[in-house]
Specification:
mainly alpha, 101 residues, 0% strand, globular
């Protein structure tokens, strides 16, 4: 979960990336930050699947953090989803000349 928050903070620019719902985005709101960033970078796409994946990963990591019965399988799957989300954002940033890595 912390990796996703750090990732979101690295790429999000409050002045360039408005929230989809007009909400003021907080410093720990990784879902809205990544949503705003992805929507900005992929503005030519309607409801991008990259955004769906990032949101699902954030939900998964939040649930796993609070799940006292989580298994090592859950942890490995979450790790894989987070790593993939980081790579998706890296690829988007490279294609938009907004490199963060």
């Amino acid at each position: 979960r912390e990796v996703l928050t750090t990732l979101a903070q690295l790429v999000f620019d409050k002045d360039k990336h408005p929230s989809a719902d007009g909400t003021d985005i907080g410093k720990a709101d990784s879902k809205r930050m990544l949503e705003a960033y992805i929507n900005y970078c992929l503005k030519h796409k309607d409801n991008p699947r990259e955004l769906k994946f990032a949101k699902a990963t954030i939900d998964f990591s939040n649930e796993l953090t609070h799940n006292r019965t989580a298994t090592s399988l859950d942890a490995e799957l979450c790790f894989s989803a987070v790593a993939t989300t980081v790579n998706i954002i890296r690829i988007i940033s490279q294609n938009n000349k907004t490199r963060f890595l």
